[in-house]
Amino acid sequence: MKGFTGMLGLLSLVLLGPPAWSYQEVPVTDGGTITGKVLLKGKKPPAKAYNLVLFPEPAYCGRISTGTGWRLLDEFQVSEDGGLQNAVVMLEGVEKGKPFAYTPPKIQAQDCIFSPAVMAVRDRDDIAVVNMDPVVHDVQVYEVSPSGSDVIFHRPLRLNPYHPKVGPQTHEHLPGEPLVDTIRLSKNRRIFLIECGFHAYMQSWGVAVENPYYAITDEEGTFTLPDVPPGVYTLVAWHPGMGGILATEVAILSKETVKTRFEFQAPPVDRSAHTTMVENPHYGVDILGIFGDPVEILPTHELQKP
Asked: CA–CA separation, 193 vs 149, rounded Å?
């Protein structure tokens, strides 16, 4: 292994402070590379479960469901060797380096899912949310921290007026008019959650970055940060399912490669009655037909397995 790493421990992301926005773009001809892997150690937590009869459009959104009236939200995608997908790895303390090429993220609501599940943004920059479903969604954006949550913005996500109202057997998506708004985080806050006010299982997480040296881990939990100016920095890993971050000090030499790894300990299972799949005769799929024609929730697009 070229270079060195030293584990600093589990910290709260806000302890690293808000983005300084003093980053300077300069040519980097002698940069190094950081590669590595983020792992989840221990038993993977089960997916959260949501009873579809409690939310609007259960037949349409139930095209992805368990077949018993439940929609699952899996927060942890883990490879066979424990690689954790959708962790954001960021290099802190870089004052100058390669150009900060940045395209504001576009979040899609499709099949009653917000995607991407995790994103990196620049504070005070725009994001766009596009409705690809023939149903109405509701965009609620919260900044979060150990001290609590606050609303950044809250707006309805209307559908394209020309989008046909199709049945659950049809799989057709037409984009509605994009909802564009600005992420404005309060002092010392860098994490935010996008959630649908109508469908609580529609969630997407974001974190503000201060320079172009960041990556989101792939299906194997791996990442690469190229063109890093020589120096000593703090490398941070964050995942929305964890209660904090992992940080390590890295020394980058000219045209050298540093290999490192992060190991998150799997969190204890803490599920409320609202996110545990428990059959209740008062909230079964049969109640959907008591005021009219029977309504079926059929997993025609994806059968989820607990």
From this structure: 9
